[in-house]
Amino acid sequence: MLRFLLTRASLVIPTFLGITLVAFFLIRLVPGDPIETMAGERGIDPARHAELRAEYGFDKPLLAQYGIYLERLAHGDLGRSISTKEPVIAEFASLFPATIELGICAILFALLVGLPAGILAALRRNSVFDHGVMGLSLTGYSMPIFWWGLLLILLFSVQLGWTPVSGRIDVQYFIEPVTGFLLIDTLLSDESGAFASALSHLVLPAVVLGTVPLAVIARMTRSAMLEVLGEDYMRTARAKGLPAWRIVGLHALRNALIPVVTVIGLQVGVLFTGAILTETIFSWPGIGKWLIEAIGRRDYPVLQGGILLIGAVVMAVNLLVDLAYGLVNPRIRHAR
Amino acid sequence: MPLLDIQNLSVAFPSAGGTLRAVDGVSLTLEEGEVLGVVGESGSGKSVTMMALMGLVAYPGRVTADRLAFAGRDLLGMPARERRRLTGRDVAMIFQEPTTSLNPCFTIGFQITESLRQHLGLDRKAAKRRAIELLEQVGIPAAESRLSSYPHQLSGGMNQRVMIAMAIACNPKLLIADEPTTALDVTIQAQILDLLLSLQRERGMALVLITHNMGVVAETADRMMVMYAGQVMEEQPAKTLFTAPQHPYTAALLAALPERSEGGRLATIPGVVPGLYDRPRGCLFSPRCAYATDHSRNERPALRPWQGGSVRCHYPLGDPSRDARIRQDHPVGASADVGASADAIPEAVR
Amino acid sequence: MSAELLDTPAASAAPAGPPHPLAEFWTSFRANRGAVIGLALIVAVFLMAVFADVIAPHPPNLTNDAAFLKPPFWQAGGSLTYPLGTDAIGRDILSRLIHGARLSLSIGVAVVAVSILVGTMLGLVAGFVGGATGIVIMRVMDIILTLPSLLLAIVIVAILGPGLMNAMLAVAVVVLPHYVRIARAAVIAEKSKDYVTAARVSGAGPLRLMLSEVLPNCAAPLIVQASLGVSTAILDAAALGFLGLGAQPPSPEWGTMLADAREFVLRAWWVVTFPGLIILVTVLAFNLVGDGLRDALDPKLKR
């Protein structure tokens, strides 16, 4: 197990260095002078220009510049946003909880619907229900979620008036950020109705963001279950006279979860891609919206820091998923 | 009252080309503590018969029987819940592939204690103690430390021992072993078989030993049942079956045993078990039988009491009037097949 | 690549002679109802793209000052002149969708063509040459896979500047690793097999080996991936268009149309609904065909 994790971890380091390279070259590849790119459109006086040039080492060879960049990184210095002048890492830290909250709710929604749907579809193979689940999940998989979000706004916000159109919470509430997760912070605060408001803001974006993972999880669960149901040990479980819920819910599901866990891990990248679009549609103040606005303002330091941090997060999650994979699969855990 | 009473059991699987009768009118009774050997080629329905008894035939398979009773209780009529309480406790089964028959995600200990807790309501501690006892009984060394092993960490033979421990956990009255040694190394096969038989004797439980290898059951079974294409062809006390088989199919199976081969050549039975589409109208074995006649091709023989057991043949081998009746009923391809038939039905029969 | 995909089944359906592999393939493909529906939809979108000039009732960018945000014909105020209504500056939505099919199909096919070509080559090299070259190629692919696809595409567009061509290039880079992995896995699996050894012993050079022996053996997964790749490409390009980083207005690219329509979501549902619907239908069609191809070409890949 340890060895398995170490192997995985050793692959992470070169990948992370690769991502630092991408981020490093991002600013240098944008047409124009990199200092001016970093300073923004307002321009910069020549003295400050020269100062920065020396600081970042633009007069030195590329390798030295990369070294300086890595050293800054090691100190947590990802530069400052051009538009707000705030450190990129601070902005990221303040916005990231919103994205995590959205992402967790989305994946919970996908699991709560996708797992049972996939299990039932496998148990009733070739039934109307099975065909329905498979058809819907392929549709969900093919869904342009930026349109799906608009459509749900059209239906639930405009036609029915059930949910708000955008944001995380009604403006009347001011919630002191404790955890950064509004669902928790509103419960901690004394303001009545704040939690309901936060929840109603969260529902549609979470559903939109969860749609593609839901489709993938449902399909994967179904095919994994179908495979497992035909295994010899399922016959043994039935021969032991176990109740049906135990046969399906424990003996079958436990095995079917192994490939499903991998697939859930792969959804992390998909979630970030989706978050960029979902946050844009619902004006959700998270990382995705921040990055898109940074592009609009040509705020390259933000983009550079954002890609690095997101890459790091994805890699960390992937490692966690490998760990979870080892936990659900004894063959890996006990591999010598 | 017999322990097991099966009358006219059929298992049918509907398929695109028609209904496949995997088991076709099987009747069988078994007394407590009896050892029954069931033999037949692959696809003869011997496993499916026992699966039907265990309630393991899954949709779309359909099980019908005039009577399917265990210890006097009708299995088909009882509520599913009650039947589940019976399976795994009073009737247990072990399978051909021990390693794939154990769940790879759970420890040996979990899988054994699961039965104990389910059927006997033991608490965690008691179940664990009992599991260790069971593992010791089936001859697994360092039983306590094995509890936390996973199936992939053990050999096939060890896993089959675990399967046996699991099966006997609740002191079943009947243990069904479906080709328990086929997937194992030759050296292990005898050990597992000995273990099964000693457990059977100690506990006085009935044992059904399914195999396609006559040699395996030769010395162990009290009674033998020979199945072919879903039907019982012959049933006899083991002793007489091996010395005086009554059905040509049984005779051919015996002739195919390596230890009975003559002149360095292994006897084979020509042809294959009939499938869904080539099921004969008459006797199911007639296309491969050396003694088939027009009569046996057109009319299916019934399973009838014969000498010490029963046989499903118009011309049982022990019938003195047999040769005359075969001649009278026009043997099929009499001229061409005489030589072949002499090969197929060897010494033991004559 | 994609034209071949479309033609192969149709051509193989005609001869009813001996069981040709293609005929066999077509039989099993046809048994999949979803795949056939998908194929029919693709053909429809394809025809729409080819004959856009003929079937579209209006030029895609023609504005009409008298018909801003007219609803579809079945709603009060709508007319058959603009069957699916008009957008905020009086352009016919139906005509724009029809012309948009050209863009989306070209994007899908071009992206897949580029990435399959480059990806397969890189994969073959990584598999055959191995060593440092192979490791570098695979590490770069890992990096591409680690970063969320849209984020990486956005970065590339940010460097190159917005526009349809750059968006296509970005998407092509993002989907590259799938092809590299398939080709490399095929090489490694096939390399050790006897027929490759035999070919090598008989003096075939590495290049010849790659192209004539190994490539045909990874054709099946590549074809499946290509079909699924077209849908990914269309979806990603539309997403970039929606974010204002892909095709630029007034281009009738479907994602770009949606971006324009966003602000009218409260007033004119049709401006928002139809472009998204056609993206969904097209993407779904390619995914259906991809699933059907997978089942028909390689039972081992069936999940």
TrEMBL record, chain A:
Taxonomy, superkingdom: Bacteria
Residue stretches spanning the membrane: 12-30, 100-123, 144-162, 194-217, 256-282, 302-328
Xref: Pfam families: BPD_transp_1, BPD_transp_1_N
Primary location class: membrane
Compartmental location: Cell membrane
Record keywords: Cell membrane, Membrane, Transmembrane, Transmembrane helix, Transport
Record bears the keyword Cell membrane: yes
ABC transmembrane type-1 domain ranges (all copies): 96-321
Family in the record: Belongs to the binding-protein-dependent transport system permease family.
Protein name: Peptide ABC transporter permease
UniProtKB/TrEMBL annotation, chain B:
SMART domains: AAA
Main location: membrane
Listed Pfam families: ABC_tran, oligo_HPY
UniProt KW keywords: ATP-binding, Cell membrane, Membrane, Nucleotide-binding, Transport
Domain spans labelled ABC transporter: 4-254
Membrane topology of this protein: Peripheral membrane protein
Record's subcellular location: Cell inner membrane
Domain of life: Bacteria
Gene Ontology molecular functions: ATP binding
Assigned protein family: Belongs to the ABC transporter superfamily.
Name of the featured protein: Peptide ABC transporter ATP-binding protein
Naturally occurring in which organism (per UniProt): Methylobacterium indicum
UniProtKB/TrEMBL annotation, chain C:
Protein source organism: Methylobacterium indicum
Domain (ABC transmembrane type-1) ranges: 101-290
Segments passing through the bilayer: 35-56, 105-138, 150-176, 268-289
Name this polypeptide is given: Peptide transporter
UniProt cross-references to Pfam families, sorted A to Z: BPD_transp_1, OppC_N
Membrane topology summary: Multi-pass membrane protein
Keywords: Cell membrane, Membrane, Peptide transport, Protein transport, Transmembrane, Transmembrane helix, Transport
UniProt keyword annotation of Ligase present: no
